[in-house]
């Protein structure tokens, strides 16, 4: 036993190879590696290198997610070069069209829309919809939504769903289309199917949108937080943070909105939407000079008509009317450009005309829009235009359509209150002005102060109230007659046979 223990503790001599043994071992290793490669060939996923910018952008646009500007530029250059030599590649045409569309979203330059449409139609020429060109069909639906042509977007989305019900990329298109059309039940059903099929950034963003439209604020915030958690790139993360800022702004928390917007800008400094949101929050916090600076920077990056309207009204509230007029002129220029590129700006232009231009023209424009899209945004704008044109009875019907489905908006509540005040219903006007102030007291640098003034001017209920109906004597429990005890009914006697 001692000898065995002693041998077990003695280290084994090192293994040495002769020249011939080394050659044999190397040959065996080569054979084993070759066999392994034959059994399992190398795959792209095995490459440890990070994806190229074009690959990242292609993945993002394929998933309907935001992409970074530099990645989009690389993707567009790559696909354009490829298609110059391979003009019959339908898949690349669809990718290029979606990349153009994402460029339009990031820059708010509607000049990209005709290019996107041309690329997507070329893809459908090479491979028609009847042969299942789902990427191009989905791209056409997304393009129609971006142009606010929601009826066309619904047709494309439903066409994809009819041919491939399990293809999840059709459902973000359908959620946006049904929302724009005012079919909120249809939007919610499409969103629920999307969540079941593909939970992720696109699904959580649409879920938040649907919950917001229903007035379920907490659910909307939770869903958008899930979207931020599902984000895989800085551009996606920044977009989710921007949307969280919008939700905070709508519920009147300007400080929290500012933090979310700044978080988005730290994540993606090119996020022009977050820059415009930060300007809005700064104005609400009384930092007008900084807000004007941010609005101008945002408009320099992304010429959005709504931002021009907001900056014009902020300048008006600061007593800088000439500068405000320049922004209103810029808004008209932007909407004319958008119209040439097939974009429907009827709501923002109608609201501008109702407040600062020709209210009758706003009524005509928005009445046509209502015939196509019966969303709460169109109903609110049309109701407000009718009020400004002096038609309060008709205006109230549209104000009700805007406020009753559930969306909690200080603008909507203010518009309805002013319409009700015009009709002499001060009680209802007071109730909706209070709702506007509770929802977001800083909803507009122009209309917010007007709402406060209107609320102060409305006669309050007469003093007294409940105390005038109090009993003069202490309450005494009344004496009620005691119920009579029921007399038992004798059971029948058994009869003999």
Structure description:
With 497 residues, the protein is an all-alpha fold. The protein is built from 25 helices and no strands.
Helices, strands, pairings?
Blueprint: H1 2-8, H2 19-39, H3 53-62, H4 69-85, H5 90-107, H6 112-126, H7 134-146, H8 150-163, H9 170-181, H10 184-197, H11 201-214, H12 217-230, H13 234-250, H14 254-267, H15 272-284, H16 288-301, H17 305-317, H18 321-340, H19 346-356, H20 359-372, H21 376-388, H22 392-403, H23 410-422, H24 426-439, H25 447-457
Keywords: Membrane, TPR repeat, Transmembrane, Transmembrane helix
Biased composition (Pro residues): 481-497
Transmembrane segments: 22-39
The CATH architecture of the domain at 345-458 comes to Alpha Horseshoe
The third-level CATH topology of the domain at 345-458 is Serine Threonine Protein Phosphatase 5, Tetratricopeptide repeat
Tally of helical segments:
25
Radius of gyration: 33 Å
| Helicity, as a percent range | over 70%
Tell me about the largest β-sheet: none
Mean pLDDT: 87
Shape: globular
Assign the CATH class of the domain at 345-458: Mainly Alpha
Quote the beta fraction.
under 5%
Alpha-beta content class = mainly alpha
Would you list the SSEs in sequence order as H and E?
HHHHHHHHHHHHHHHHHHHHHHHHH
Weakly predicted, low-confidence segments: 1-50
Query: How far apart are the first and last residues' alpha carbons, in Å?
Result: 107 Å
Query: What is the number of E strands?
Result: 0
CATH superfamily of the domain at 345-458: Tetratricopeptide repeat domain
Organism: Streptomyces spororaveus
InterPro entries: SRFR1-like (IPR044650), TPR-like_helical_dom_sf (IPR011990), TPR_rpt (IPR019734)
Protein name: Tetratricopeptide repeat protein
Keywords: Membrane, TPR repeat, Transmembrane, Transmembrane helix
């Amino acid at each position: 036993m001692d000898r065995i223990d002693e041998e077990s503790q003695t280290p084994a001599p090192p293994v040495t190879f002769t020249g011939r043994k080394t050659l044999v071992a190397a040959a065996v290793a080569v054979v084993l590696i070759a066999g392994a490669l034959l059994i399992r060939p190398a795959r792209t996923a095995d490459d440890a290198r990070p994806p190229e910018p074009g690959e990242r952008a292609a993945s993002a646009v394929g998933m309907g997610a935001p992409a970074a500007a530099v990645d989009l530029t690389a993707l567009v250059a790559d696909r354009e070069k490829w298609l110059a030599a391979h003009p019959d590649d339908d898949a690349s045409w669809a990718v290029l069209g979606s990349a153009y569309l994402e460029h339009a979203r990031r820059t708010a330059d509607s000049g990209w829309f005709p290019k996107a449409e041309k690329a997507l139609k070329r893809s459908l020429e090479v491979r028609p919809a009847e042969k299942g060109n789902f990427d191009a069909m989905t791209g056409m639906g997304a393009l129609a939504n971006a142009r606010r042509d929601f009826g066309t977007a619904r047709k494309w989305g439903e066409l994809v769903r009819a041919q491939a019900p399990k293809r999840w990329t059709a459902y973000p298109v359908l959620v946006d289309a049904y929302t724009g059309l005012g079919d909120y039940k249809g939007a919610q059903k499409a969103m629920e199917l999307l969540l079941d099929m593909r939970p992720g950034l696109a699904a959580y963003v649409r879920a938040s949108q649907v919950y917001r439209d229903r007035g379920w604020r907490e659910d909307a915030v939770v869903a958008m937080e899930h979207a931020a958690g599902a984000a895989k790139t800085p551009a996606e993360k920044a977009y989710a943070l921007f949307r969280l800022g919008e939700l905070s702004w709508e519920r009147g928390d300007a400080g929290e909105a500012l933090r979310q917007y700044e978080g988005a800008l730290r994540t993606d400094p090119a996020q022009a939407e977050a820059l415009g949101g930060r300007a809005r929050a700064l104005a609400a916090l009384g930092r007008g000079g900084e807000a004007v600076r941010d609005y101008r920077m945002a408009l320099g990056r992304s010429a959005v008509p709504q931002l021009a309207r907001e900056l014009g009204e902020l300048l008006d509230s600061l007593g800088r009317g000439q500068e405000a007029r320049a922004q209103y002129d810029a808004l008209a220029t932007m909407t004319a450009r958008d119209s040439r590129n097939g974009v429907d700006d009827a709501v923002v232009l109608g609201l501008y005309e109702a407040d600062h231009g020709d209210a009758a023209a706003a009524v005509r424009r928005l009445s046509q829009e209502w015939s196509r899209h019966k969303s709460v945004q169109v109903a609110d704008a049309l109701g407000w235009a009718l009020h400004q044109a002096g038609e309060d009875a008709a205006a109230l019907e549209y104000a009700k359509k805007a406020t009753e489905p559930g969306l909690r908006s200080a603008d909507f509540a203010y518009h309805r209150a002013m319409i009700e005040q015009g009709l002499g219903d001060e009680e209802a006007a007071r109730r909706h002005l209070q709702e506007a102030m509770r929802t977001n007291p800083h909803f507009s640098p122009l209309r917010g102060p007007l709402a406060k003034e209107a609320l102060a001017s409305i006669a309050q209920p007469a003093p007294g109230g409940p105390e005038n109906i109090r009993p003069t004597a202490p309450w005494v429990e009344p004496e009620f007659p005691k119920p009579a005890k029921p007399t038992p009914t004798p059971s029948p006697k058994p009869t003999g046979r």
